[in-house]
Design brief:
Length: 133
């Protein structure tokens, strides 16, 4: 009886710590935890989440600004998108097509998105973090 009870407790605690079948992870924390277990499966979902957040941050940065600023920011965003995509292509080449090439490329994309969100949300004069030397 004790072995049966221990098994049941183990199964219940495991089940309560994981998403129910059919549930889609919806928070960054949930996705980050799942990425650690299966990066190729969950990195695309985490990237999509962060891209939606970046879009909101970008739109907030445009809001209520004068047309000159908006035009400059739109050009800046287009240039950043081109750079981020090119940077991911460089990562794909750097990883020489190895088995983790897709993961490294997606991690680099996620890094670029987070960095851009930081740039858009933090005024330079507020003091950006120091870039490692």
């Amino acid at each position: 009886m004790n072995l049966h009870r221990l098994f049941l407790i183990t199964v219940l605690s495991f089940a309560s710590s994981h998403l129910a079948l059919g549930d889609k992870p919806s928070t960054e924390a949930q996705l980050t935890k799942l990425v650690q277990q299966s990066p190729k499966t969950y990195l695309p979902e985490l990237i999509a989440l962060k891209e939606r957040e970046l879009k909101q941050v970008y739109e907030a940065a445009l809001k209520d600004r004068d047309p000159t600023y908006q035009a400059a920011l739109q050009k800046s965003q287009a240039a950043w998108e081109a750079f981020a995509n090119a940077d991911c292509r460089v990562e794909a080449i750097d990883s020489a097509g190895g088995s983790d090439a897709a993961v490294f490329t997606m991690e680099r994309k996620l890094y670029q998105i987070r960095l851009r969100m930081y740039q858009l949300q933090t005024p330079f004069e507020a003091g950006w973090v120091e870039i490692p030397k």
